[in-house]
Amino acid sequence: RLPREKPPPKPRPPTRWEQFARLKGIRRKKKTSLVWDEQAKEWRRRWGYRRAGGDPSRAWLAEVPAGADPEEDQFARLRREKRERVARNELNRLRNLARAHRAGSAVPAAPLHPTGHQDRDELRTVARVARVSTASLGRFQPRLPKESAEPPSRSGGKKRRFEPLLGNLAAERSRQLELLRDMGSKKPVLDITRAVNKQLRQEEAEAAAANKGKKQSKRGKRGRRQQRPGRSGKKSGARRQPQQQKKAAGGGSG
Amino acid sequence: LIYCYRKPKTKRAKRFLEKREPKLNENTKNAMLIKGGNANLTVTEVLKDIYAVKKPFAVMYKRKNITRPFEDQTSLEFFSKKSDCSLFLFGSHNKKRPNNLIIGRMFDYHVLDMIELGVEKFVALKDIKNSKCPEGTKPMLIFAGDVFDVNEEYRRLKSLLIDFFRGPTVPSIRLAGLEYVLHFTAVDGKIYMRSYKVLLKKSGCKIPRIELEEMGPSLDLVMRRTHLASDDLYKLSMKQPKGLKPKKKKNISHDAFGTTYGRIHMQKQDLTKLQTRKVKGLKKRPAEKSAEDGGATPKKSKSA
Q1: Closest chain B C-alpha to A90 CA, distance in angstroms
Q2: Which residue numbers delimit the Brix domain (chain B) (predicted)?
Q3: Could A7 and B107 be called an inter-chain contact, meaning their C-beta atoms sit closer than 8 Å?
């Protein structure tokens, strides 16, 4: 009836130990808070202030275990091991935390699993991800015969690369001449028919993708085979022309 | 607490963090009362009176904070995070907007709704000389005027005011503890807030006679600007976790009138062998029994 103060708590994913315990069927044993201390002849805490086993910082005897080096400092060893235990505990806690955090916002790996119905682009993405998931990020992976020779840029085409200023004189000359020729010619640079066809094809692809999302695997190859002749048939060719003329008129006046 | 990268080192710190984390059943909402850069006497008095009404669940900021909530909400959100308050009342005074109060609430430390109200007339607690309610009394809220149901902004204002003045949620109520009434009337584009103390007088029957005595702050407000949350954010904030729904007991149903019905499922019964109450008058006499047996030798007849 009234809005909440904070969003409801999300259940956190189980830690690595909790998963293992659930698998094995290990349950928590309820422990008593006080333990009988034989030396002090009274009930003492299990851990904390005045614990049952005596104060560990005041332990004045550290036995050398049977197979150990006689020269080694046992007190130093005990201190070092405690530090390592604490560090390992903290590391595991942070790892569990990171895992829980990641589980909430993970990108689902579903597109990478092979289904029978991926199209060429999806398979290309999957192949690229598979190539890059090596230790050297795909730099030394052998290439398939029909794959592109040059590796795609790591920044995804964001950084611009410029030619050196005084490099290839012949190329520069031909480029400038072509530019002048295009500026001087009467024909418009934008080929309207091609642009319109491209747009139509893109729209059809989007519509096909939307339909594929709705009616999945049953269609599969059969569906695609039936759709193809419909797409590039006479009817759609005829449809393109009046639209193209309308667009040309619009382009001319606007 | 579960997502803390730095674990708290003392029990007190742990309790502090546990109080602030999102829970199934939430804490009572706290309100922060803030003065703007140019708050005048009226506005300060209003804030002090509202603080007195909301006493344990309100935080009064002493210093003036030069911010404009409608333009920039970051400082309000920062305060809300630091003091764990999800309701706020910001008072300021301008030539353009005299005696301005911005009442608002937060969701997840971000501003959800904000409504700006102008105070036209104000009568303080100390101006009305009579006995007051004890501090922390849960008020009864009455909303008069059909504008509160019809107009969208007024509906949000009603929800905001209920949220603000509600106080802690209680499982049961005691009649003698109902002492404070806050009455909101919306008429002619203005909102009148009056507070009354409930006096329970003796009457002939078991139900006492009620008398309302005016006490407490009385405000005449006019609605100015609003900043209401978008529908999907509001819906998100209203989402209740599944654990809060009461568990449905099987075979028990409730009527609209409050009657509880139960169903019992029985197997098929042999009605001839049913064990009913024994009525002595219907007991078979020995003469009838012998007639039924068809001439079998009757036993010695027993006197009835």
Answers
A1: 10
A2: 29-232
A3: yes
